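=== How it folds ===
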Amino acid sequence: MYQVLARKYRPQTFSELIGQEHVQKTLSNAIGSNRLAHGYIFSGQRGTGKTTVARILARCLNCINGPTAGPCGVCSSCLEITAGNSVDVIEIDAASNRGIDEMREIRENVRYRPARDRYKVFIVDEAHQITKEAFNALLKTLEEPPEWVVFILCTTEPYEIPNTIASRCQHFSFRSVEFAELMNRLKHIAEQEGI
């Protein structure tokens, strides 16, 4: 079955990332020293790797060998997260799930331990679209989260996230990838595809 190149060559580990070394190094060190935050904000332009890094972090936390900065990629947890069907890694598109009811549902879901994995990871894409009321509903959970929960808020507009939420999260700014690095990556993909 044909797979879109963007999905086929999406980085699966920190070592495969390009242009975000500052994020990669900081998160790897945090995992290595077991100093994980319960909330992260990943901000930057579209296409800089925010959601990709969120998925990699979820794999690092839930890998059978983990928490580790180098997930194995072959255990059931790694494979399910890569395929996007892990019950303990919940991806939410805040553009279409932005209201208070959805945040209350998350708040209820947080109370229950992960089904199999070590952590229950909530990846909220387009987090700046969440309504003010919905952020308020999420605030209590971010203030006193259970030890098994990690929130990753991905956004292109970090200034839209209320200070009450931002102050309880570690913030990572993703940079635009340098043109030379993009060209090298494109060359690599072209070689792999026989183009």
User: Anything to note?
Assistant: The beta strands are 39-43, 89-93, 120-125, 149-155, 170-173.
